[in-house]
Amino acid sequence: MDFKIQWFPGHMTKAKRMMEQQLKLVDVVVEMLDARIPRSSSNPMLIQMLGDKPKVVALNKIDMADPEKTEKWLQTFKNSGLPVCKVDCSTGKGVKQMVAAIQQVARPVTDKWLRKGVRNRSIRVMIVGVPNVGKSTLINRLVGKNKVVAADRPGVTRGQQWVTIAKGLELLDTPGVLWPKFEDPEVGFCLAVTGAIKEDVYDRETAVELLLERLMHIYPEDLRVKYAIDFSEAEPVREVMAKIAVARGCLKAGGVLDIDKVIQLVLRDFRTGRLGRFTLDEPSENN
Questions:
Q1: Which of 142, 159, 206, 264 has its CA 20 to 30 A from that of 226?
Q2: Is 176 labelled as part of a ligand binding site?
Q3: 137 labelled as ligand-binding?
Q4: Whole-model pTM?
Q5: 168 and 251 in one domain?
Q6: Could you tell me which InterPro entries the record lists for this protein (predicted)?
């Protein structure tokens, strides 16, 4: 796959250092993943940073992912021993189950405190993930409109605060941002088309061509129905883009095809779920 990211994140080291400081303050970490790209939106760096700290995986944007593949991904995580739940932050679906999963994985920690005679100590939680995966939306939903600020904690920088989200559960009201690494072009492609990285660091036209080629093979009927076009799976992707341009009126003066409008259209429809429920990362035994 010839897909390149022009990515020079000078702030990655700073973000990593900040994340390490924040992780010292918490007992449980929720790693939020995009259900359409569970592998590509996971950051292997987090595993090293966490050590033996308990983690819960939250698959977000399930309303835009392929339901069958989501179930397979859930099983993949369960098989690897990771507590996992599926959530839809925009509606709140699955959030209660996620809170219950956090309480469950924290039990060994709370039991240890009880043995030491420590009572009334809240479990402290942090939500982490790559950009645009839904962390802030989840935090806002957990916190609610009326923020109940917990007692000040040492070591928390200005602008960060602890809020109570359930009995005995406090959340660091700042999402932890994991900056993705792009050694694998497939990961870069998946993060690009789902909107996790800015469009000025990659070629949108190449991204859309690759996306349409993928959808033509995995979800051809959705494409045909959505854009009212017909094509064979062996058809060149540029011809399919031309058909979309004609069907959707993406035309310049004189009937010239406006491919840039097609690119905008496909990206928008894919990212909003209007195009269909798609999962780009295939679950496998090697995840």
A1: 206
A2: yes
A3: yes
A4: 0.89
A5: no
A6: G_CP_dom, GTP-bd, GTP-bd_ortho_bundle_sf, GTP-bd_ribosome_bgen, GTPase_MTG1, P-loop_NTPase
